[in-house]
Structures are given as structure tokens and as C-alpha cells.
Amino acid sequence: MKQKVDAINERAGKPAASPRKPPRRTVITENEVNAYFMFDAARDLPTGVVSPWISIVGPGRVSGRAVVDLDAVRRESPPRSLLDPKNLLMGRLPLMATGVLTTSNGTGRFALESASVGNVPLPKLLLQEIVGYYSRSAGKPGGISMDDPFMLPAGIREIQVTRGQAVIIQ
User: Fold this and answer.
1) Distance (Å, whole) CA 54 – CA 33
2) Ordered DSSP codes for 79-128
3) How far is 76 from 120, CA to CA, in rounded Å?
4) Which residues on adjacent β-strands are paired with residue 150?
5) Using an 8 Å Cβ cutoff, are 53 and 66 in contact?
6) How far is CA 83 from the centre of its chain?
7) Contact 12, 155 (CB under 8 A)
8) Is 166 exposed, middle or buried (0-12, 13-18, 19+ CB in 10 A)?
9) Which long-range contacts does 11-14 make (Cβ < 8 Å, 24+ apart)?
10) Cα–Cα distance between 102 and 81 in angstroms, integer?
11) Domain count, the chain
12) Backbone dihedral region of 142: left (phi > 0), alpha (psi from -120 to 50 degrees) or beta?
């Protein structure tokens, strides 16, 4: 997987495919993605996020899980009342989300279908707080919004998701 990621990044600076030259396709399997998370990408994950795992469920559908330090999120945005659902978010717990990934023309969008912490359903609003917290950067101090479309990196034009694999098109 690391070699495939390096090749995708290397092609990023090259001109896009012309009508005479077909786009470059790179097949990445679910097992390759998860091995990459385990061995090569762990150092790039935010502090408090460990053991990520991706399942490529079927046409366009993906599922992901990770163990997340929810105490860090609570410290940043404390519960507003005794009935605030964040009162249930304590410690390091497995978080899971499933949804549909659609991509075209270098842009992607993820539509959430469901999320949970452990076996407890997680409202989208709370998942957004967690995603926002762990995706903050100097350029995006509020983090990523799950509802916003995003640019695909490295000159990727499209990602075709089928059961157990994704095809990266540059």
C-alpha cells in the first residue's frame, strides 16, 4: 500500500490524462488500507485516535471505526446541561460510522448513514463535534464539516468504491 500511495502522490504533479491517454487507475483493497493504517499511517493520526479500520462495504458504501479519546473532546466542548448526550461520552471508546462516499471531478462527499459509540447510536451532531475536534488545523480551526464537499488529494479525479476495494482514478 505504501508503494501505491507513493506512486499516487508522484503522479499528482503530472498533467492530467488527455483524451488519447486513459486516466491512471490504481486498485486498493480493504486489506491494504488497513495494513497501511496499522504500519505506516499511525504516526499521522491525531493524538487520541488509535486502531482505525475501514470496511469497504459495497457500491459507494464505506464503514470506519477507531478507538477515540472522548475525554479530550469533552474538555474542549463541555456538556451544556445534565441532559446533554456528551455526558455519556467518557474515556476511550470505539466509534463507528457508515455512509456513502461519492466522488467526481476531483471532489468528494460523504453522506453519513449511521454512527455509534460502542453499541450506542451516536447522533450526527455529536459525531460532527468529534470529527471537528480531531480534524482541526491552522487553516481550519473548527475542523472539517462532514456535510461539506472536499477536494480529493494528489490529482485524484474519482474513487470508485466496490465491495472490498476502491479504484483510484487520476
Assistant:
1) 7
2) -SSTT-GGGG--SEEEEEEEEEEEEETTEEEEEEEEEEETTEE--HHHHH
3) 22
4) 108
5) yes
6) 30
7) yes
8) buried
9) 11/154, 11/155, 11/170, 12/153, 12/154, 12/155, 12/170, 13/155, 14/155
10) 37
11) 1
12) alpha
Q: Which domain holds residue 65?
A: 2-169
Answer whether 92's CB lies under 8 Å from 82's CB.
no
Question: How are beta strands 120-121 and 165-169 bridged, if at all?
Answer: unpaired
pLDDT averaged over 10-residue windows placed end to end, the chain, 170 residues = 90 68 92 93 88 96 94 68 62 94 97 94 91 91 94 95 96
Task: Please choose, from the candidates 1, 6, 44, the residue with its C-alpha nearest in 3D space to the C-alpha of residue 135.
Answer: 44
Helix (H) or strand (E) holding 74: helix 70-76
> Cell digits for 44?
499521522
CB 108 within 8 A of CB 149: yes
Residue 80, pLDDT score: 62
Q: How many CB atoms lie within 10 A of CB 109?
A: 15
